[in-house]
Amino acid sequence: MTTADPVRHWVSARLRILLWLLLVMAVALGAVATATRSVLLRDVDHRINGLLVQEAGEFANFVRQGIDPHTGQKFTDPNSLLKLFLARQYADRDEELLGLIGRPAPQTPATIVQFRELGFEHPLAKDPGALVSVFDSPDATGTLHRSRGEVRWAKVEIGSGPGHPPAAFVVAIHPGAEQDKAGDVFTMLLAISGVALLMTTGIGWAVAGRILKPVRLIRTTAAELTEQDLTRRIPVQGRDDMAALAETFNAMLDRLERAFAAQREFVDDAGHELRTPITIVRGHLELMGDDPAEREETVRIVMEELERMSRIVEDLLLLAKAERPDFAVPEPVQLGELTADVFVKARALGERDWKLAEVADAEVLLDPQRITQAMVQLAQNAVQHTIPGQRVSIGSRSADGRIELYVADSGPGVQPKDSQVIFERFRRGTARRGARATGAGLGLAIVKAIAEGHGGRVELRPTDGGGATFVLVFQELLILQEQRDTEL
After folding, report:
1. Which of 36, 73, 178, 286 has its CA 20 to 30 A from that of 82?
2. What is the structure's pLDDT at 133?
3. What is the Cα–Cα distance from 450 to 395, expressed in whole angstroms?
């Protein structure tokens, strides 16, 4: 019993970008509103504390320096002192200035000498319980948290003399109005933030759609691509990252189109090359009679064609492996010894004037089997395009960090129009340079793949005196000896 795959709900990149943008903006705007409210409330606290200190300091200074106008001496009666001081004061809208004569009690309030009746609700003067808390508090300042509103206060006690009850000057400030203003500003900022988020939603949706338009085009184009039609491209507009993405995608499509074209050509060529020996084998087997000599000739031809097909298949498998990263396995190799080994193996390929031209003295990192395979293939190619007695030279050299291994022949050479064609699969060029070869046109393609597998290339150069020279060039091949000299 199989379980059906769950339905995948896709969320578009456009929506995700918009949601993240709104989240970031909401957090930022909320932080700004909260910070503004905190700053306003802090300013209210600073103002209130400053007023409390100022009023208390003014009264304390009046107590020390004040003169009773009736006696011309310092005040001895707290009642007269408080009345005269309060008569000269101008309280703010949220401020109470109180003079208390005698200790108040919840049921028997103290005598209050008050400057004027203020306009706010629930004043401290009409709250006996709160007055008791203020009068009995050992602190000079404090805060009353009443159900009717918060009150900040400061008091200055007046020392009582003989026959006089205890008295105190109290400054009470009601911060509710200022705090409400800070709350109103906070609410207004939240409302503005909401409007800003709504505007951002529309603008962000449009901008995200415009930015992601190339991505949607890429998705649509990729969905419409088929192996038979790789011609669609993304229009490139602007010079931003999305334009670069479109250019990269178009370049990828170019490579895919070339790769599919090369694959189709390769399959067509391979089918053509394999079809010929199959046709030959089938034809001879169908026409084979009972004559022993004829049978022997047919078997010989069939075996040759089967061997040719086997070589084609092996070469195709080798070229397929060339795409793998482990195609070449480099190891430290003495270039001189490798060149000499190649020369010895190549001499058995045909009766030619073989010459070991030069040998490089360097230790390098390369795959000796692959390089030997490429060099022997070049030597075989030289044998096919020369006649007995003609010179074929093999050598290697190193200079300026570059390694070259080459095979030079003295044959008719390669025509300029064939210089690039001959390195393609199943391509031999328009003019043959010597005796007819039995290969399928994969030899030089294999040499090119081996060179590129080492990060190098294969070049075709003319030979002095006539002929063709095929060179394996490795520009960035690591020379171990130079590395050791550098470390030393």
Report:
1. 178
2. 84
3. 18
By the 8 A CB rule, do 301 and 284 touch? yes
Tell whether domain 241-321 is in CATH 3.40.50.620: no
d(CA 303, CA 311): 12
Looking at 74-78, 123-127, 271-275, which range is the least confident one?
271-275
Rounded to whole angstroms, what are the CA distances from 383 to 304, 451, 467?
20, 21, 12
Q: Exposed, middle or buried: residue 448 (CB in 10 Å: 0-12, 13-18, 19+)?
A: buried
Ranges of each domain in the chain: 16-182, 241-321, 331-487
CB 428 within 8 A of CB 415: no
For residue 158, which of 52, 51, 53, 62 has the smallest C-alpha distance? 62
Q: Which of 391, 305, 308 is nearest to 350 (CA)?
A: 391
The DSSP bridge partners found for residue 366 are 331
Compute CA distances 104 → 107, 126, 158, 240, 484, whole Å: 8, 12, 15, 78, 100
Give the C-alpha separation, 104 to 111, whole Å: 8
Across the beta sheet with 468-474, the strand order is 353-356, 391-399, 402-409, 468-474, 457-462
pLDDT tens digits, 204-237 = 888 888 877 777 777 777 777 665 667 777 777 7
CA atoms within 13 A on the CB side of 319: 21
- Mean pLDDT of all residues in 311-322: 73
CB 151 within 8 A of CB 177: no
CATH assignment of 331-487?
Answer: 3.30.565.10
Three-state secondary-structure class, residue 208: helix
Least confident of 43-52, 153-162, 373-382: 153-162
